[in-house]
Amino acid sequence: MGMGDCVLEILLEERGLLDKQVPGRELEYFVAWADPQAIRSAYEITAQIRSRGYPASFSYRQGGLSKQLKEAASQNGKTCVIIGQSTETSGR
Q1: Which residues does 64 contact at the CB level (< 8 Å), separation at least 6?
Q2: What is the pLDDT of residue 7?
Q3: pLDDT tens, residue by residue, 42-80
Q4: Quick one: pLDDT at residue 23?
Q5: Model's pTM, two decimal places?
Q6: Which helix (H) or strand (E) holds 79?
Q7: Which residues are bridge partners to 82 per DSSP?
Q8: pLDDT digits (tens, 9 = 90+) for 7-31
Q9: CA 78 to CA 90: how far, in whole Å?
Q10: How many CA within 13 A on the CB side of residue 8?
Q11: Is the torsion defined by CA of 3, 5, 10, 13 positive or negative?
Q12: Are 67 and 17 in contact (CB under 8 A)?
């Protein structure tokens, strides 16, 4: 009999053990870049935040600042760190 991780997850969930063993992690920091020259700095800052034990993320998709901020909101990031100067303009 083989048991994969999906089967194990279902078993632990049915027994009510999964939530007790795996604490929920909230995203403390989301690092976004305002211009393409700041991407490398955003990666480095994210790594520094993680090395200090804080959950941090960034967008793996290269898009504008507004798309990154939407992604930060969808991940429930508590704090958004923006690197660089924005060149985006509003369509309004």
Answers
A1: 88
A2: 82
A3: 999 999 999 999 999 999 887 899 999 999 998 889 999
A4: 54
A5: 0.66
A6: strand 79-83
A7: 32
A8: 877 888 788 776 655 555 689 999 9
A9: 25
A10: 6
A11: positive
A12: no
Instruction: Please tell me which residue, 2 or 45, carries the higher pLDDT value.
Output: 45
Token pair 């929920």 is found at 24
3-state SS assignment for residue 31: strand
- Tell me the C-alpha distance between 70 and 79, whole Å: 13
* Residues 39, 33 contacting (CB under 8 angstroms): yes
CB atoms within 10 A of CB 59: 20
Buried b (16+ CB within 10 A) or exposed e, 45-58: bbeebeeeeeebbb
What burial class does residue 14 get, using C-beta atoms within 10 Å of its C-beta: 0-12 exposed, 13-18 middle, 19+ buried? exposed
Q: Which residues contact 52 (CB under 8 A, 6 or more apart)?
A: none
> Tokens 């660089």 appear where?
84
Provide, for the chain, the percentages of residues in helix, strand and coil under a 3-state DSSP scheme, each rounded to the nearest 5: 45, 15, 40
